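May I ask you to comment on the folded chain given beneath this request?
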Amino acid sequence: MDFDLNDEQRQLKDSVDRLLADSYGDLAQRMGYMKEPKGYKAALWQQYAELGLLGIPFAEEHGGLGQGLTETMIVAEAFGRALAIEPYLATVVLAGGVLRHSGNAALLEELVPAIVEGKLTLALAHQERQARFDLADIATTARADGKGGYTLEGEKAVVLAGDSADKLVVTARVSGARADRSGIGLFLVDAKANGVTRRGYPTQDGQRAADVTLSAVRVTPEAVVAGPDKGLQVLERAVDEAIAALSAEAVGAMGGLHELTVDYLKTRQQFGVPIGSFQVLQHKAVDMLTALEEARSMAYYATMMAAEPDARERRKAMAAAKVQIGKSARFLGEAAIQLHGGIGMTMEYKAGHYFKRLTMIDMAFGDTDHHLRELAKMGGLT
């Protein structure tokens, strides 16, 4: 199978790499962005819009570029290497994915142009404290008002970019028991609507999240993104695409961390020679490279399988990718910190920042152990 990028994809990669090299070339730049009111640099988000990055997965008829998962993978890997903190995953991949797969033409026509222009950011509010990575475990309720609208009640935890998003895509139970796979709807909620309370906070990887409380929040019929007949299916499809994007981001971060570590081995002196001349450390660096390439292969596989129409086969592929990404990230991260010594744990050095981001990626939508259990339940990958 040919994994080479075509001319347009190579041009996209070069453009994104150049922009992020300028914007994140120094760790101090990233630290400065983290202190911005939104937790990221708004001007850089506009540059993403001008470059067309925010319109990549959306159809041309709605104002997007009509490109695919490979292009999203390219952007995500570049974000991982640069340790970019803008809410691309939250707005374009997660909430944007829900919009795309919902087939709600009215909302797509209304929202996508604003997303593409960088004027609207979204966040997917789905996770709840009791759920333990189960997307169907939803206690938040949506009570029909008899006029096509709903009233939402409940709490959502660790909503990625939830404190800065303009609108939230909320999952809520219209009918059934708490963990039933049916009866789940998706609703568009203005983040400043009456009854919406957000408590924002920084996450360990330098990004931001929020806990969201919904108290008697009313939504109109036009704000129903997907009804309870297909809400969970739409959510799962968007999350699978997010896992593929996160896998690519992890590969970018691991690549950056491996490169940083090898450079350190070449420059750090001990007994009058670079420590990279010690054979045992060379072997460790090679083991790190092997783990990186194993992760890269699974990231490619996840990108291909994210478009698989068979939900079961798609979920198996995503679970397998998460298992390998998690294993590789942990091994490579721990080895990098060990080889760097104390400097690897400091806030002033990039190695620790890479490891923290990789740890958060492992936890997102289920950690390694969770997906290994899920893969075993489905009979393995093959």
